[in-house]
Amino acid sequence: MSEAGCVFCDVVAALERADACPAGQPGQVLRKVRDLPASIAILAPDQYYKGYTMVVSKTHAIELYELPERQSTQYYQDMVAVARAIATAFKPRKMNYEALGNTVGHLHWHLFPRYDSDPNPKRPTWENNHPPRLPSPEEYADTLAAIRRYLA
Predict the structure, then answer these.
(1) Which of 51, 96, 118, 119 could link 113 by a cystine bridge, Cβ 3.0 to 4.6 Å?
(2) Beta carbons within 10 angstroms of residue 151's beta carbon
């Protein structure tokens, strides 16, 4: 189920047909990590936090409780599987989970691996304003491969 005019509904549709699609910012690309039962895992263009991935619901919903129980449970399991794969691939000290939806009203989780090398590792990510870190195509490919390796 999709909602006309929803940015993430359009992204989900695009990534069901291809491995990448344009992001909201010019010159940035969203790369599909994996198509999962209830969601699509998407590598964020900004890799300031290496492995930063979004898990976007395939079904348009604004709140988790709007999904039928089986689907919300599967969506949660998808998110946990992605988090586990990122943690196994990159060994962060902590994983931050954010599901706000204030800007884009479509259910999605932001998974931020946090490292000791973070400028402020014990504070929220949004407190560290930074220019986007856009890796080379080879580094994006390596990051995708590392996460996919551990994503069952």
Answers:
(1) 51
(2) 19
